[in-house]
TrEMBL record:
The keyword ATP-binding applies. It comes from the Bacteria. The lineage of its organism: Bacteria, Bacillati, Bacillota, Bacilli, Bacillales. The keyword Endoplasmic reticulum does not apply. InterPro entries: ATP-dep_AA_Ligase, ATP-grasp, ATP_grasp_subdomain_1. Residues 104-294 form the ATP-grasp domain. Pfam families: ATP-grasp_4. This is ATP-grasp domain-containing protein. GO terms for molecular function: ATP binding; ligase activity; metal ion binding. Keywords: ATP-binding, Ligase, Nucleotide-binding.
């Protein structure tokens, strides 16, 4: 029986661990603390900081691990790929690629000027004045999730936004990006031998009071998107960043039917989209990914046919307070729901502003569009 190590124990990693358990693998998980459901889902758990490469490497050797992987975490992917390369374990992309996708400055530098790229500037100086027209987004260059991100509309507000981004950057750097004035979508894809073999676009609704923070993902087969532009932008980024195999997630904005890549990474998203996709067309992307990674079985995908339009809606709340789930109303027709905490638990800060505390999946009603 192959032994698989998952880095992290958050709900998204717990789903991967549970899938591996179902597939008959022996599961291991590590995290700095036993503070997520993946710790109990795994057959073996130990408290190890996932970015402590020496400790993780020793754990892999001591336990004769056959593969190390993660989902939903940019922080984990560079470590997983670096150690997989060093220890000759299976992996989809190089450490260099995983590192670039975890560092917005590196990703932007590499993809500068290609199809779908966004104008940007990088600074470590809070008094820096941008030459990009306002509004702009200011982000940590190496941030995880939505930490430290600000939408800035005036030059007077820029210094505080840069400081906030730098405070949330391990490298002390901020990236300033042109604000794309269009609608936002998520693209979940799968790459085989350098080519997109699966592409699914979902509408992405953010909280109006918190720009950029996700509220809902909606998959609607009747929605029309400029697919040629979307796929061209993603394919250009795949080739430039050398994402040749495995899952890929992109956050995209569309302006005047032109797609711009906001984020792209060679992993599953952190929003449980594989679940939504399975409700939509029955494609089990987690299963296909692990068979590809662990057994070298290249996946095939469902052709567009019988589908179920669906919504994934997040429950969110301000962190650093106790959670009261009684405030949320379960949407009609909910087919699956999940709570990240027990009632009354303290909400841990992730983005530090308005954090996910659970989700619902339910059929799309046309009046919601």
């Amino acid at each position: 029986m192959k032994k698989i190590l998952i880095l992290g124990v958050a709900p998204v990693q717990a789903e991967a661990i549970e899938k591996l358990n179902d597939m008959g693998y022996e599961t291991y998980a590590i995290a700095m603390k036993k503070d997520g459901p993946g710790a109990d889902a795994a057959q073996h758990f130990e408290e190890i900081n996932i970015i402590d490469e020496q400790a993780v490497s020793q754990y892999i050797k001591d336990n004769q691990i056959d593969a190390v992987y993660s989902v939903g975490s940019d922080l984990a992917m560079p470590v997983a790929n670096k150690l997989s390369e060093a220890l000759d374990l299976p992996h989809f992309v190089s450490y260099e690629t995983a590192y670039a996708c975890n560092h917005k400055d590196e990703m932007r530098q590499r993809t500068k000027g290609i199809t779908g790229s966004v104008p940007f500037e990088i600074t470590q100086n809070a008094d820096y004045q941008t030459e990009i027209d306002y509004p702009v987004f200011v982000k940590p260059t190496d941030g995880q999730g939505q930490r430290g991100i600000s939408l800035v509309e005036t030059k007077e507000a820029l210094p505080n936004a840069i400081r906030k981004a730098i405070e949330n950057s391990r490298e002390g750097s901020a990236i300033i990006e042109r604000y794309i004035d269009g609608y936002e979508i998520s693209v979940n894809g799968y790459v085989v031998d350098g080519k997109l073999q699966f592409t699914l676009v979902s509408m992405r609704e953010t909280w109006p009071q918190h720009p950029g923070l996700i509220h809902k993902h909606v998959i609607d087969p009747e929605a029309k998107f400029p697919m040629a532009s979307i796929e061209a932008a993603i394919q250009a980024h795949l080739e430039t960043l050398q994402i040749d195999n495995g899952p890929v997630y992109a956050q995209v904005k569309v302006m005047n039917d032109e797609a711009f890549i906001i984020e792209i990474t060679p992993r599953f998203d952190g929003c449980h989209m594989h679940k939504l996709i399975q409700y939509y067309n029955e494609d089990d992307l987690l299963d296909k990914t692990f068979k590809h990674l662990l057994e070298n079985q290249k996946p095939s995908f469902s052709k567009e046919g019988e589908v179920q339009p669906v919504v994934l809606e997040f429950m969110c709340e301000t962190p650093n307070q106790t959670i009261d789930y009684n405030q949320f109303k379960t949407p009609e027709g909910t087919v699956e729901s999940y709570r990240y905490y027990n009632q009354g638990d303290m909400i841990r800060p992730v983005n530090g502003v308005y954090d996910k505390v659970g989700f619902y999946i339910y059929p799309l009603k046309k009046e919601e569009i």
